[in-house]
Structure formats: C-alpha cells, structure tokens
Write the structure tokens for this entry.
Amino acid sequence: MRVVNFLLAIMFLGFSFLQLNDPDPVIWILIYGVMAVTCIMAMFEYYSPKVLLALIVIYSAYSLLYIPGVIDWLKSDNPSELFSDVAKMAHPYIEESREFLGLLICIAVLLMYYFRSRKRHA
C-alpha cells in the first residue's frame, strides 16, 4: 500500500501544479494539496477517521455546486469534448465537469482511507 499511497500523493501534487493557470487556483491547489498530504500520511498508516470524514463531507458538498455543469455536459451533443482543450473555452460546463470529476477522485480516495482507518481501529 505504501507504493499506491506514494503514487497517489505524486498524482495529487501534479494536479496541484496543473492548477497554477486555472481561473481559481487557490481553492484547487488547497484541495489537491490536502489530498497529497493525506496520501503521505497514509503512507505511514496515520489515519484520522474524523478528519477523513470531514473532508469527505466538505468535498461532497462542494461537488454539488458542479452538478448543473455535469448535467449540461451529459446533455451536450459531443460528450467527448470533455477531453478537448479548445472546447474548454467554448463551453463553461466542460471546466465544471472536469472539476466535478477531480472532486470525485478525491472523494473515492478519501473513502478508501476512511474504510481502512475503521478496519484498522476495529
């Protein structure tokens, strides 16, 4: 698991770095930075179930703001535009959908750590 946690930490650090040219970089650098720290802590098997649960709730609540953009993306004629850099400028829902998916990745990792922490403390 240490290797997986290390790779996840590197991935989230990379995500943080990519946010430098984002319109709202501070919030996303914080989101992915916290995830990187969480992954590093997991490398040493340090899990705080209360903190993990709080992060799950916060990230889940924040992701709800992007639901309208995700719905617009799913209704679009060409859903593959999500992976196009040009479409990002043409359709605001592309950026919102990408941010939603980023939050889903964070939530999935946090859930994995939360359940590992509960198993470890049981």
